[in-house]
Amino acid sequence: MSTKILPNSDTESDVRPDLSHGDGDHERFAHYVKKAKITESAVTGTPVIALCGKVWVPNRDPKKYPVCPECKEIYESMQSGGDGKE
Questions:
Q1: Alpha helices (H) in 16-81, listed in sequence order
Q2: So what's the pLDDT on residue 2?
Q3: CA atoms within 13 A on the CB side of 26
Q4: Does 62 score more than 50 pLDDT?
Q5: Residues in contact with 65: Cβ distance below 8 Å, sequence separation at least 6, in sequence order
Q6: What is the pLDDT of residues 18-38, one digit of tens each?
Q7: What does the radius of gyration of the chain's CA atoms come to, in whole angstroms?
Q8: Which of 9, 29, 49, 74 is the most exposed place for a label (fewest CB within 10 A)?
Q9: What is the C-alpha separation between 52 and 78, in angstroms, rounded?
């Protein structure tokens, strides 16, 4: 968080949410995100949200990383109708 003093002696806080998941494991994986969102992010620089909840701006080759187990599990449950059965 940073604080700026404005000319009128008001303060303005720049509060940014902590988008990390703490342990850094999410940085070691490729995550599942809708293709359209990846394209949009590449054009606008806006963050994307993976199925597992990771929020980031993609900037690396996902083929170099293993698939996030949480994203994979969620994706597979969606493909099977979401009832947990395969």
A1: 35-44, 69-79
A2: 43
A3: 19
A4: yes
A5: 28, 29, 30
A6: 444 444 556 789 999 999 999
A7: 18
A8: 9
A9: 13
